User: Fold these one by one.
Assistant:
Number 1:
Amino acid sequence: MSPKKDAGPSLSAAPASAPAPAVAPKPSAFMPMGQMRRDECFDLLKLLSGVSRPLEDVVADFLARVPPERRLRFGSAIAFVLEDKMMFQPAERLIAFAILHQGYSSQLATPFASVLINAACDETSERSEQAFLHLLLSSANRDNNEILKQSAADYLKESFYASQVLLPKEQLERQYSCNAVQPKMHTSSCTAATVRCVVPDPDISQRVSPAKPNRDNVVADLLQETAHKGLSPPWIRPPPPRLEILEGELQWLNLDNKHELLWDGSMCADTSRGAAIRDLVGRACKGPLAPAQQEQVVLDLAKDWKLVYHCAMTPEKLPDLVEHNPLIAVDVLSKLINSPDIDSYFDILVSMEMSLHSMEVVNRLTTAVDLPPGFIQDYISNCIRSCQNIKDKYMQNRLVRLVCVFLQSLIRNKIINAILV
Amino acid sequence: MEPAASKEAPPTQPQSASEEDGMLSVTAAMARDASVLFQSHRYAECAEVLAQLLLKKEGDPKVLHNMAIAESFVDGCPYPKKLLGILGNVKKRSDELACASREQSDSANGVGNNASSGPRGGGIVPPISAAHNTTAYGEEFDTTIITFNTALILYHLHDYESALSVLEPLYRNIEPIDETTALHVCFLLLDITLALQDALKAADIIQYLERSFGVANTMNHNENAGTVQQQSAQPKPHAKSNTPPDSDSNICPGASDILSVGSFSEDTLEFESLYSTLDRGNQLGRPILNEFSRASADRAATAADLKVRLQIYKVRLLLLTRNLKVAKRELKVLMNMARGRDSSIELLLKSQLEYARGNYRKAVKLLSTPNNRTEPVMLAMFYNNLGCILHQQRSNHSSILCFSKALKYSLSLRSEKPLKLSAFSQDKSCLISYNCGIQHLMCGKPLLAARCFREAMPLLYHRPLFWLRFAECSLLALEKGFLTASGATSCNDEVEIHVVGSGKWRHLVINPVKSRSCFSDSGSSDKHGNLITLRFARQCLLNAQLLMDDFEQENSVIASDTEDCNQGAQCQKSSGQNTMSVESKTPSGPTQANANGEQKGAASLNATLQSSLGMYDAICRKENLKIRQAILGDLAFIELCLENPLKALSIAKLLQQLPDCSRMYLFLSHVYAAEALCALNRPKEAAEQLTVYLRDGNDIELPYSVENCEKAPVEKDSDGEDSHAPAVTKLTSEESQHSLSLSPEDACAVVYVDLGMTAAMQGDLEQANYMVNRGFAMLPNNPRALLASVYVDLLQGKVQGAMGKLRQCRNVRFRTTGSVAASR
């Protein structure tokens, strides 16, 4: 009944730093929560500025310093900053790309494949950078990559990248997805439709070439930003209104009625209750009772009408009772009127063979109780049908006259409407 | 022979006492002693006698039962569940014995179909009707009282559903049960059905009582008084001819009549004699008794008492069905009846009536008329009801105060010694907690409200509305910024812009809209006990939905039943088969009599009851629609917040398919569906959801009008007494501030902005720009609209314009990273 416990938006807290206030749980399964610390940012910057070290070494350093569970965080921060081409120097960018490419589990393709491919095909980028990315992406065997043995600065100096053929994007993607286990990452249009949320302050008109201390601070700040995503289309989601308090919703209290536990008075009681009448009714179904016996039944029932439920009467026995003792039948039926079985009693009565006694019973019932609607009509049609079917002319004649008398009585008692019949 | 009536009363049957006494066995004598002791409240002695009796009749279910009952009176009933267990065992044992004895008699009797000569002592052959099972084995294995007591305990434990399921079979086959017990069954069932707000069943029981106990006519004096008098005899001719001693003269002529006629045999019959027989049959009128009691000098409930009690139930039912006009009239009848008695119940009802009619001052006056205001039960009731009235008068804080007081008194009942069974049912703290929770919810205090609702859960968990309210706590928390979810609007939303770098390197990071949280979110789950989370709210709403589905299924069955029946009655089809469906609910009555077209006796009351039921049904339908809408709307919203666009979409579609869905919820469903579709990368379909509101090119019509969103004024049958002093006097700004319901114009702006976003996603920047800016113009202070506009500007590379908008808006906060760092 009670709904399950809920984990709540618990934040996997970043080491040594309290989680940011009200960080909404973001959807992407890859994104481990927690921000980068300031010192982490500067560490990373230092790594990136090692332009003269072989790329291999830088990547190894990265893997050594950053625990696996933090790497994704670092990667997305790097990718975020890479979007702005002015932030890193060309050589630094190469290192950053190398980390994005190499810095993840060797079994799986890098989660930043789409970032790399997009950058590789970005016409506005430096040719050297595009070529570098092509080389990275097309290297089938990543461990044996010549290019990583160089330092970023050397790579730029040698400028053999000029000869590198640049493939169109589709081909790169295809190629890459053959190489990699992981197919192209799905991006929903919401994320595809993001716009870069970092803008240079428009009030500062002119930008100068990267100069160290200032730039480092910006990059560190950017790395620290909580959501390394662009600005997705803001959507207005109006909250549903609260249902107004319905009339009678507030619980008004009333005084309780006193209900107490009941004593069972039938404990050890004489269980012969109704035995006599049961016996008599049983006999009444087999043949006419003597007047004294009839009187006994009527009186007993009059004294305690609920006895009628204890005299073993059933609808099946009704025709016999009607034939042998119509008056007892009337008495029993009128007391059973509230019984749940009364309908089956009436059904049997209406369909039993027509006779003087059944007519008598029905006639008495019409004045004694409320019969179900349609009962009289059904009974009369039954009578008429019986009259039609009789072969013996004399008997038929007799029966027809009986029915007429019966009808007359009904009409006179306003049980049926003469016009209606 | 012992009539059933002695079940409760000591067996003081007059009939040939000496002879009877001689036949009484030792055990029967002891049983009688015990019974007498019980009736005279000497429970301890009674238990002793029973203990001795048990030695003689080891394992006898009835002795065990009575013993448990007597003991529960000796020193209170602190563990009703234990008693429930005992009764369960006793019943099982009794059923086993009955079964065994039936098998025995079956084998003894061969086929066992001749009932006439069944052996005594339980060897009575069961009649074919299964419905008779409980009573048919004879008294020895009759479990009526055990069943009743079981239901009674469940009732006291507030477990009305179980109590109903236990007691209903008894009611369905109530005719064979002796009258005293039957009355107890009916009254208990009435209290249960009223607690469950099951007006249909309650009305049925009331009608049954009126029919069977002949108390119908009193109330017809008001209306068509002329005709009623002669009609009153008509409706219950079948009523038991249980004659009081003096009416023997009445029945005896009838009997001798019958006898004289009964001796006719077909052979000797002449038509004339048949004629006369038939004729005379007409005069065989049954004596009608307006007293239900028979030989009942010592019976507590006299006929007058019965009438009063029934009338009280009738008024309560009418109040439940909100038929206030008739309730007022019937209450007047009740007041007249109850003259000279302790009238606290009546006054309370009258106060409730005035409360329902909106005459709050009168209601308070009636509530405060000095009645026994020292008992905690009365005090709890007084404060609770006062709280309800104050709520209506919008004095929220005093209302909460009252509810808290009521709660205190109600809870104090639990510590009473000795703890009586009735103390359990008198403790209404669950209901009071619910009231309190509602009040907190209205005051914008989701945490307190949720805590109250948790207390109310044991009693109200079967109501969809309850779960909806529980979920609303979390939504309110979201609205107030205690909870956060991506994309959800709260009252303190803002756009935060981080200024990073300095000098020439200064950059601005524009963050998505988020709530300026009032306090740290960390550890919220333990603090609120998980009652205030979106996931919990979703669970609540799913519960509510399930309950609604059940409820509606049940309802549709009933509705089709009644329709069938009505048609059946009109067609005058044969033999009452059509009425069976109704009869199953109105198990024992010749209601079909009314179908004959003639207005008979009690029909006028039945008609009012029927019409109030119809009205109530319509009210319930309307309310259920509101609840259903709210559930679906909330659920779609929460699924979006929990980033389940697929679920959100399907729920929003459900909402759209809801017949008679209000235009406001229709609007919400379109917006939610559109957002879900966007998240699912289907911006085109999303746009289609919203373009339904597009008129004449690029204009958007108002999605709904003010009437659709504001709550319709409640129609009240007011005297106008309070109407000149409208209740709005204390409409605090605080409250209005919390009903964060969207105006139609705002809704229109929302459509503009969201439509703009779908255009942006489809790459139509021009259209996006146009739409978003129109929306933004209408919602200049909405941070999301602002951000949408900024977003479109950025898409178009208009950084300068975007910044200009951001600088102008008051819901934007610029923070340097320094301060960000400092805040961490």
Number 2:
Amino acid sequence: QQTTNTVEEPLDLIRLSLDERIYVKMRNDRELRGRLHAYDQHLNMILGDVEETVTTIEIDEETYEEIYKSTKRNIPMLFVRGDGVVLVAPPLRNRYYTRNLAMGTM
Amino acid sequence: MVGTVTSQGGALGSAGDSDGWVEELFYSFFKSLVGKDVVVELKNDLSICGTLHSVDQYLNIKLTDISVTDPEKYPHMLSVKNCFIRGSVVRYVQLPADEVDTQLLQDAARKEALQQKQ
């Protein structure tokens, strides 16, 4: 029985994040940030201490400008069905910092 | 090897194959929550609060004594006491945090992940 602890496939990367905070991008402009307690090959997950962000765009009737609005809510413990999951990552650090680091301007 | 499956305080993985672990972590997890109150949020944005009556391998859910949580701007189900929810239409299930053994879950997820690689 194989009991390798090496990281070989993408799901292994998620295994490294157990008991860590993660960022989850979902369908329908939703994002979750929470502590990963469990997951499976479908990307069903259990997250603890979750903050959900739902982003919507409102169009101003007169100016036609796009207004981005986000709604947040907190949920202590959440099961997430995998078919809604798009991306799983460590939590985004300070975006200004990481973006400039990537561009080489810092 | 004839294994005696000893579950150490956990209800996870008791739907057994020979080594006691099935690739159905969340099925076992939900079975351990039968009788608890949960809120199921559907993909059509309807949120239903109720007592978890049963679950199956597809994570289809039966709830009893239901009520619509979010302000009842969504379909009023005033006369509906029990319901069956197809697993595929579920977006989230909000769980009581103190009914969840996070340590057990993490260990089970690690095991399940390693099992899946074979």
